[in-house]
Amino acid sequence: MQGGIFSAAWLHYYIARARLTPTQPSDTKMNRLLRVAPICLILSIAVSTASHGQKSYALGLGGGAAIPVGKLSDVQKTGYNVMAVLAVGRPDLPVGLRFDGIYNNLRRTDPVSGGSVTSSDLRVIAALVNLVYAFPGTSAKTYILAGGGLYNTKPDVPGAKAQNNFGSNAGLGITFGFGPFAAFLESRYHSISRSTKKGGVFQFVPITAGFMF
Question: 3-class DSSP state for residue 58?
């Protein structure tokens, strides 16, 4: 409780200070608020959890299928994904943060009979930050999440260069509690922003199952 009061007071002070500085552009104020809000959430969780003697984080590993959608499905087909997770939150709070590291390999399409190979495997690595909201439940809870981060993409061909681009993701999932462990199943929609000359925007949907501990 003290952590929540402390973070709320800090955020209130920050907002009030931004309002009292009319010479700053509105986009600068918004960027500052977007940066400080996750910090307030983490502080609230950490301080409040420490006062109650509860664990404030969980680690997770998962894997599954990675499915190309839209134009990407013309040149790639379903591959696989691997994910590492750091979740920050409290069991009695519906909102938390997720820091995800993902690796996806989208397989190339098979060439037509007598034709040549027109695509290669596509590797997608990303570091993401997501806001998570869990709906009420007992041993099973559904949740939604959304966020973004930096994506690194590279076709699996000799001499190809990797590209770094920002992107976003959103999805839903369900967790099943087993004592100190939990299993999860989720699906997310990823959209990576690239300029037209670099191939344009593309999307894919990983379906991932894993464990949190």
Answer: strand
Greatest CA separation for the chain: 70
The CATH fold of domain 57-212: Porin (2.40.160)
Both structure tokens of 207: 């379906």
Residue 118 is given by DSSP the state -
pTM over 0.85? The answer is no
CA distance 87 to 210: 13
> pLDDT digit string (tens) for 175-199?
999 888 999 999 999 999 998 888 8
Encode pLDDT of 76-131 as tens digits.
Answer: 999 999 999 999 998 889 999 999 999 999 999 876 555 555 579 999 999 999 99
Give dist(CA 97, CA 90) in Å, integer: 10
User: CA-CA distance, 149 to 166, in Å (whole number)?
Assistant: 6
- DSSP one-letter string for 138-187: SSEEEEEEEEEEEEEEEESSTTPPPEEEEEEEEEEEEEEEETTEEEEEEE
Dihedral over alpha carbons 85, 91, 97, 101 (to 10 degrees): 0
Query: Are the C-beta atoms of 45 and 3 separated by less than 8 Å?
Result: yes
